[in-house]
Automatic annotation (TrEMBL):
PROSITE patterns per the UniProt record, alphabetical: CYTC
Single GO MF descriptor: electron transfer activity
Protein name, per record: Cytochrome c domain-containing protein
Domain Cytochrome c: 38-107
Alphabetical UniProt keywords: Heme, Iron, Metal-binding
Matching SUPFAM superfamilies: Cytochrome c
Keyword Secreted: no
UniProt keyword Hydrolase, yes or no: no
InterPro entries to which the protein is assigned, alphabetical: Cyt_c-like_dom (IPR009056), Cyt_c-like_dom_sf (IPR036909)
Cleaved signal peptide residues: none
Origin species: marine metagenome
């Protein structure tokens, strides 16, 4: 029987697509939502330095973030094929600050 071979570059693309689709459909329970504990002003500075170039002033594409710290951390740690990987770039405090800015901006 002939063995089906998928080129590695296509395989990794398919894996990324499947992971992306899975993430897009992930549901975090309301119990996992965490109140913003960071400094929204410092978070705005970080957002303007690292995020505004792609997401703009109105946080385009962040509707699914829904104020959930876990989801923000997942995305910053390379959880999206459409975003740069910021893993290890932000301290927990800086991530909390970005979270505080995004949640205060959504209200």
């Amino acid at each position: 029987m002939k063995k089906l071979e998928i080129p590695k570059n296509k395989l990794s693309g398919h894996v990324a697509l499947i992971v992306g689709i899975g993430f897009a459909h992930m549901q975090f329970s309301p119990d996992t939502a965490v109140a913003a504990t960071g400094d929204a002003i410092l978070g705005a500075e970080l957002y303007n330095q690292y995020c505004v170039r792609c997401h703009g002033d109105s946080a385009i594409g962040l509707a699914k973030f829904n104020g959930e710290l876990e989801r923000l951390q997942f995305m910053l740690d390379g959880g999206s094929t459409y975003m740069p990987d910021f893993m290890g770039m932000f301290t927990d405090e800086e991530t909390n600050n970005i979270h505080a800015f995004l949640t205060s901006n959504a209200e």
